[in-house]
Amino acid sequence: MTAPPIVIVGGGLAGAKTAESLRGWGYDGQLLLVTEEPVRPYERPALSKSYLRGRSGFDDTAVHPEAWYAEHDVELALSTRAVALDPGARKIELEPGGTIAYERLLLATGSRPRRLTVPGADLAGVFCLRTVADADAISAAVTPGRRLVVVGAGWIGTEVAASLRRVGLEVSLVYRSGAPLTRSLGTEIGVVFADLHAEHGVALHPDVTVTAVRGRTAVESVELSDGTSIGADLVVVGLGAEPATELARTAGLAIADGVLTGPGLATSAPDVYAAGDVANVTHSLLSGRVRSEHWWSALTQPPVAAANMLGHPACYDWIPTFTSKQYDVMVEYTGHAPRWDRIVFRGAPASRHFTAFWITDGKVAAGMTVGIPGLERHIRALVAAGAGVSPAVLADPDSELAELAATATRQKKEQSMTHDHAQDRDHPEITEGLRQWYDACPCCMSQALPEVKQALDEERAAAGPV
Ligand SMILES: Cc1cc2nc3c(=O)[nH]c(=O)nc-3n(C[C@H](O)[C@H](O)[C@H](O)COP(=O)(O)OP(=O)(O)OC[C@H]3O[C@@H](n4cnc5c(N)ncnc54)[C@H](O)[C@@H]3O)c2cc1C
Question: If you measure from the C-alpha of residue 243 to the centroid of ligand 1, how many angstroms do you get, rounded to a whole number?
């Protein structure tokens, strides 16, 4: 009798990369990827950037070419939703499609956008942006000169404002805080983004909420809590997202802001794993749990989940990273700072050429560069080392970040009371699981994790022939 398949629920980056990693590890059993969307897995970042501006198409953002699935014997169940999970019986119910048994299961159900819940929010012309279908619908409504109201000034809201301003829409950005992006970056940096958008002709409406969307059959205006009414031909809602936990919750898995997993991405149910936006992971290097809604996490968790699914123990300890580009300003953020005590700046924020460090409990919890490429690796090392660098040194442009990172990494090793092999290496962020994956399938790793592959290439070269 053949064993039941490994089933992956969710056709985003995390789901597709887990399929790739399982095959990379040599798993040759039946592999089924179930996704409610009608298209093969794709990556979402372009949806608020080049795809929305018509500069890239679906094939550019698909995780794998169409033929890859047949070539790797990965069965795709498109337009299929997993509606119930029975971890005791190891079965999931699909809609449409009946019930199937699994040997191991990965939940990669991602996030769902928060909706606007005011009167008129269901009028034609009001959009969320999560899927390629959403992006297509928005694009179809875009004509230069039309009036767009973006509700919410987080990452997606600000990126949509920048992208559609660049294609000639009249854009208003409406948000509850005093400046864009303040929840994740703080007010001083938020002001930088407010100025950037204002310079490009975006009308800013801070400190307000939307009270109603008005229109007869389609949106005509948006009413704000300060009494303002803004004329609108389309509205894009960017109010953040919630982890898609419904399947896990009804099955009784442990949930709290996502599906709780251990460091190996195993959930509270036997042989059920989670990865990507939906996973709230016990992080091996950062204290506590991390749920990251970023592309890089959906890329780096799958090899670890796949390794553990196949019985090769591996811990997830990658430091979260994300990038954003708005107009010509490039942002690169590394670390995890849901709260912070202070932000230290190296360079003036107003110059749009600076580095910021978020300090939490005396340690560098995160760092971000604006307009300065190439520092991500050093910031990663500072965060991974839990470094307590003095604010004056962090702020000093003459103190080399590479040296600070090397010193912090060395000190962490010296202070370590227990012997931990991972800390003895030049790249503490590379886990044993990633090393094993490199040994099993360096080609597949070079596609998924080029930086890790390069670091391990260098490490193996330095070690010499075995
Ligand atoms: C517009 C946009 C722009 C972004 N830009 C950036 C960026 O610049 N940088 C960055 O780091 N991150 C960015 N992100 C975030 C990044 O895309 C996510 O972190 C990433 O998509 C998470 O991948 P995932 O596979 O975990 O989940 P998802 O990509 O959300 O995929 C989950 C899939 O599972 C499906 N699904 C859910 N439940 C079920 C079910 N019960 N049955 C079947 N299928 C199900 C969903 O429909 C979806 O197809 C952006 C996100 C969006 C929406």
Answer: 10
Q: Hey, is 248 helix, strand or coil?
A: helix
Distance CA 278, CA 129 (A): 18
pLDDT of 142-175, one tens digit each? 999 999 999 999 999 999 999 999 999 999 999 9
Give the residue whose CA is nearest to atom 37 of ligand 1.
109
Residue predicted with more confidence, 431 or 260: 260
Positions of E strands within 336-406 = 342-346, 354-360, 363-370
**Whole-number Å distance between alpha carbons of 414 and 387:** 13
**Does 6-112+242-309 match 126-239 in CATH topology?**
yes
* Paired residues of 107 in beta bridges: 9, 274
Distance 127 CA to ligand 1 centre (A): 17
The per-residue pLDDT for range 25-54, each reduced to its tens digit, is 899 999 999 999 999 999 999 999 999 999
Residue with the smallest CA separation from ligand 1 atom 7 is 45
pTM of this prediction exceeds 0.85: yes
Predicted pLDDT of residue 465: 53
Which fold would CATH assign to domain 328-414? Enolase-like; domain 1 (3.30.390)
Domain 6-112+242-309 has CATH 3.50.50.60: yes
Higher pLDDT, 273 or 25: 273
Options 3.50.50.60, 3.90.1150.180, 3.90.550.10, 1.20.120.1810; CATH of 126-239: 3.50.50.60
User: Which residue lies with its CA nearest to atom 53 of ligand 1?
Assistant: 130
Instruction: Please state the separation of Cα 126 from the chain's center in Å.
Output: 24
